[in-house]
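Observation: inputs received (chain + FE2/S2 (inorganic) cluster).
Thought: call the complex predictor directly.
Action: predict_structure
Action Input:
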Amino acid sequence: MTEPPIRRGLARNTANYGDRDFALYLRRSFAKSMGYSQAMLDRPVVGIVDTGSDYNNCHRTVPDLVEAVKRGVLAAGGLPLAFPTVSLCEPSLFPTSMHYRNLAALDTEAMLKAQPMDAAVLIGGCDKTVPAQLMGAASADVPAVQLVTGPMLATPFQGERLSACTDCRRYWAAYRAGKVSEDRIHEIEGRLATTAGTCGVMGTASTMACLAETLGMVPLGHGSIPAVHADRLRAAEEAGALAVRLIGNSVRPSQVITPHAIENALRVLLALGGSTNALIHLTAIAGRVGVRVDLRRLNELSDSTPVLVDLKPTGEGYMEDFHAAGGMPALLWELRDLLHHDPIDVTGVTLGERLAEPAFVDRRYIRARSEPVSPVGGLVALFGSLAPRGAILKRSAATQSLFEKEARAVVFDGLEDLANRIDDPGLDVTADDILVLKNAGPLTPAGMPEAGYLPIPSSLARAGVKDMVRMSDCRMSGTAFGTIVLHITPEAAGGGPLGLVESGDRIRLSVAHRSLDLLVPAEDLARRRAAWSPPQKPQRGWDRLVADQVLQADEGCDLAMLRAGG
Ligand code: FES
Ligand code: MG
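Observation:
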């Protein structure tokens, strides 16, 4: 049998049951039922991943973006075909959006591969949607450009500015401490997020947009354009035109997401003081192209990468300030001697070429190397008997006086236990203790939620305690702050030592030594381990697939079968 000619446009990926031409004939006749002219159907196809959803506030502008992308595709000579995939919005999903990131990635990968398209535009914004699309695109390896929805604007309100969701946490903590009234907290509720777009601080969505820009999957300068700015629509139009230009230029996501590009993204994550979640997502994206993110390498990079961006939750500004201050072109320029210059973006242009000239910079939000926000990076990995495969601390959002600490553990067995007891006036806890939450990792039904920001017990909050050492095998919102050790690996439900910790045990945290140790004699631990049994797996569906397949945090919490090489 002779090989079919290389097909493009609607002819791509036609089924072959012995008469390929008939399959294409059928496809065309059904496409014609949608009213396209033959001339349109002869064009190359740009698939547009549409993650608009009434459940997803961060994606409220997606219908407008799809229209603008289509305009760009049509003007450049392509046929734009938008299609829906799973849309993930942080506050809308139970048990947590993280539980569904891999589902969105799988959906994206499958549809990019199954449907006829020569290139794709990936429209996404919220925390999990951006990494899911990058994971899916890396695996499908279709030429693709990503268009993020962009951040919301902060709301001027009675002399301050508010935005989701660092200010949500700040006000809620004050409310728990009895410093903000019931009426006031309800009034604030309607002022925290008042425009379309993703959270307005350097949370996970913003961090991922900046990393996608660093990787070269989002055009440089486009990641931080506010959602409601006219430039966002122009960026969409440009993304559509760019996708058409990608056709025939053979750059694939797997050539963009390389070891050097990943290391650049890690540097940028550190310089942003970015979200801890981004580390898991970047690890998962890297895993799709066979690259391993090493947490010990993260520590080396962290020691030589200053935090330069002064945004909440660690600093002062909001994403609109970062964008106006020069955004990623300015930050990458500032970091240029620390970055690899060879990685190419989706158009095949190297980072070195993209950084040919200095960019405008406003030093209020993007500092000079000589005057950093912090001389070292925002994140560190900790290792030790409590975290043999690592744990993460966002030191840029933590209290330095708590960095070296040996103290008593106050342990919660899971989320329900935490909810039941944290505010119990009889809880035996002092500000000097370490709060430990276990059984909230990726293997649990909780699905590794952003529960690592354990509330300060209300008795202590009311007494003025603002921070305590807290640790768990789950995650923390990118918009949160505190001395919080996350992603303890292996997790409790996976047989990690965290599962053996009991209230009253001593734990030693040393940020200086990058260590986290459980100070319990080996024989006691052996006895506890003999009595331990793994949790029961869910019986069916997605939950069962996750329980069978999900990897630990140090491997990006991807499904094992979805990594490069399975
Ligand atoms: Fe979507 Fe924050 S909830 S970006
Ligand atoms: Mg978030």
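Thought: report the result.
Final Answer: The chain has a mean pLDDT of 95. The two ends are 31 Å apart (CA to CA).
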